[in-house]
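Recap quiz, item 2
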Amino acid sequence: QVENVKLLDRYTNRKAANGTLYLTATHLIYVDASAEVRKETWILHHHIATVEKLPLTTAGYPLLIHCKNFHMAHFVIGQERDCHEVYTSLLKLSQPVKPEELYAFSYNPKMSKENREIGWKLIDLKVDYQRMGIPNDYWEITDVNKDYEVCNTYPPEIVVPKAANKAVVIGSSRFRSRGRIPVLSYLYKENNAAICRCSQPLSGFSARCLEDEQMLQAIREANPGSPFMYVVDTRPKLNAMANRAAGKGYENEDNYDNIRFKFIGIENIHVMRNSLQKLLEVCETKSPSMSDFLTGLENSGWLRHIKAVMDAGVFLAKAVKDEKASVLVHCSDGWDRTAQVCSLASLLLDPFYRTFKGFMILIEKEWIAMGHKFSHRCGHLDGDPKEVSPVFTQFVECVWQLMQQFPCTFEFNERFLLEIHDHVYSCQFGNFLGTCHKEREDLKIFEKTHSLWPFLLQKKQELRNPLYRGFTAYKELQPNTLPFSFQFWCGMYNRFDKGMHPKQCVLDHLLSCVSQKMKLEDNASELE
Amino acid sequence: QVEQVKLLDRFSTSNKSLTGTLYLTATHLLFIDSSQRETWILHHHIAAVEKLPLTTSGCPLVIQCKNFRIVHFVVPRERDCHDIYNSLLQLSRTAKYEELYAFSYNPKQNKCEQVKGWQLIDLAEEYKRMGVPNANWQLSDANRDYKICETYPRELYVPRTASKPIIVGSSKFRSKGRFPVLSYYHKNKEAAICRCSQPLSGFSARCLEDEHMLQAISKANPSNRYMYVMDTRPKLNAMANRAAGKGYENEDNYSNIRFQFVGIENIHVMRSSLQKLLEVSGTKGLSVNDFLSGLENSAWLRHIKAVLDAAVFLVKAIAVESASVLVHCSDGWDRTSQVCSLGALLLDSYYRTIKGFMVLIEKDWISFGHKFSDRCCQLDGDPKEISPVFTQFLESVWNLTEQFPQAFEYNEAFLLQIHEHVHSCQFGNFLGNCQKEREELKLKEKTYSLWPFLLDEQKKYQNPLYNPDLSPELLEPNTVSFNFKFWRNMYHQFDRSMHPRQSVFNLILNMSEQNKQLEEDIKELEAKIKRRNGQSDAVLVKEHQQSAHPAPMALKTPPCFKKEQPLIPVNDAVRTIEGSNTADNRYSEFVAEFSKAEPAVVSLEYGVARMTC
């Protein structure tokens, strides 16, 4: 506990607040003493990305904290010893080494064991496959990966074409990076076109694999409506070619029957990490001039990357809906760009994924189950900083950009996205811990921690979109991807800079409008 | 009339086109496509017509409009194309005022309505609303015959202590005779916004009367000793003007003034900035990087920010320091109009109503002589006089509506419609360059006023989120760069494919209307109940008060839904009454309709996650 600490506001030059800093086991808490109303700022240790000591100023020792949810706090502490102590303890607390130290394992929301189990069962992927009509004549749920023998980063239950027998599956898995074979991600029921995902083939310059070729053929034949299928490599062509030298690479159109091969050119995790870094630097500039802001935004390339992801999603959706062709998507390992593109395409094609429940299922299916390495990408544990990358953040931003274009099609609002984004980093719930399903089982996540989704559903009232027109109002979305349609997301990257936002919140107004309406209706029915 | 003409879409990559027939009328260019959809283009809106090199499908003709519509026709025969080209060139460039659309436009109004329409906006009334004339300010008749300043209106408000010789002397020392006059008076602070043109000070000239004039303005504000003089030009430009015998006020010669440059660029810079912006936004197959760097290069948003920053400075001087401000630029009709009108808009919520905005435009733009005719190129004239000064004003207002979505009674469509008509020359309001010219043209007799027409379709222009009770009188916008956005609906108003696919406007409107309807229905029901059951009056009235206006309460502190929820009283006394008359049936239908649209109420327990940690 340190008293007499000042919290500086990032943009306004108002007088700094004076207050007390508390360090608890899980949070850093700042209590503003000067305000009449008790104002508290809570910062979860897991959210802290970096802590920085700045050179001494006249007011004291400045301490700058950057959070993973783009919160930035600038404290000024009176005494050097205090400052140093806070600094070192934060450093220690913000970088846990063992998974068991994560908040989720100690978090106890006073919930009975049964309720917790029910919470974990809330999202059942089998139900979603059933919704798509699987199993059917062409697709089946196989338990070939029951003991993680085929692929240890895939879940135990995967969906493959019925025509692909065990030998084909295993053969194909040997020819794919990390054994991530082509599996179904989404089936568009209306024309049987499917979106499948996998990792890059180990083709090098000339290698081929009959089972893998049979696998792709099986996928194509599972969609009798189309004579060909797309194979989409979401990497830039140059990167994919470079991978050939390492014995990996991409499919050769001559070896596979009737495939149409296409590069889409989304950059890799390192480029994305740097891009976000640049974007945040722009956000942090104190009152940038108009030109600085625009040049900075352009230089960061962030919106260009968002557009690339969106374009890829749109391409997939068009191929499935308009050309009735199945699509196989991969990148390098098939857990970053592939997850972005597949989930975005499903979101565009299926209104179910635009509801609360559907969006949860989408994240559980394409991201969590299929092994997006949340733990590494979000830096949950002290690890390789080169593995950190805002891949999931980009997906969330793409959804937000869609919301701007289609304000009435999503059941949830911006806050829901922010809430999910927060909890991906907070490690408060078990869902996003670890890197794959196997690891989560090993960590006993399902026994020891809680699931995020029931907590979000409880808050439904403030997370809903008051303008939602219902499930059936809109089917497939065809977003516009001209550059004009992409905006800087102030609500995400400058969320905690209160002065930056519109002074009046439309969302609050509309929400209260809706609740007022319900109340009036209640009132009226009582009167009757 | 030309048949088999194709209309190309500007952005779609698929080269899809509509085929139809092109008609030329006296006032419009009309395109009707095969599915009978009509595209009307007013000749006055046409900024440029261009013939492109012949292609295989025909002769392309590109028409750029002043309201940022761009249409791309392909005419099969070259002769037709040439004919259209020539006639459009002729029709779009009018040499005389009398040929403008406004003089032939006949909206079936009788004489009386026409006169009434012109009387709708009464500036004398407006000054009365502000609280002038009063002890310090009076109406001056010095310019009654336009003898002192041709470009000012007849009726001007000046400090009471400024005698006629001072006015005349001051006007001789000001460019174009535009001496300092009142633009807006802030009743509570007793501070004033005044406007004028640059002084003819050169390097050392001074004028006692002008100094007296400023002193009079300063003294007319009893709450503050000093006043601000804002020169809205960049310092360099103002200094350069000194060589031509113009310039800016010397702080040493005037007592108690604080002089300030705010650096808004001139009309030529703005014109080329817009030009660049349009080039960027018109590019086909633009990448995100090209767009952003193009946006930056055009500097358009930087200029918008400069204008708003100036207005914010002005407002702070008045609201915080209670000081009067005198604003000028070069001639005091471009940047000065922008800054004064935006300042007033921020200070006074009246200007954020539909009627008030009309008054503001009439006052600070039309009557004070913003040269609409020259700036919007209504007549064939000097292209160097054209500049999007008024467009910038509208864009600044739009930016404010984005920051304060509940503070404005009007919506984006209203701003766009005004912009449309500034260029359309369909109504008399914006014709000519100043009041004198308008009187000579006999506009009030020969043309119609725009405002009554806008008021008639008021519903279209209302902002469903408008809530004056929740909006502060004084707006304090944030002018950090992040807050300025490209105004897609202005510059791509006619590119349908670019707009959000879903219009929220109607939904919100419905929502608030349903709420109102519900409230009324409840009132009605309660009244009925009251009549039948006179005893439980007291309870009912109380309940009624709670239910009628819960919205403001909920809004100030959104989390208080929680507190409010228990307020819904379960009033058994009321429930016992079962009236099954016709009105009630209608009502239950109503309810049924809603319950379909809205999911059931979910308990409002707050996030356990955050509260327990």
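Chain A has a mean pLDDT of 89.
DSSP finds 21 helices and 14 strands in chain A.
End of item.
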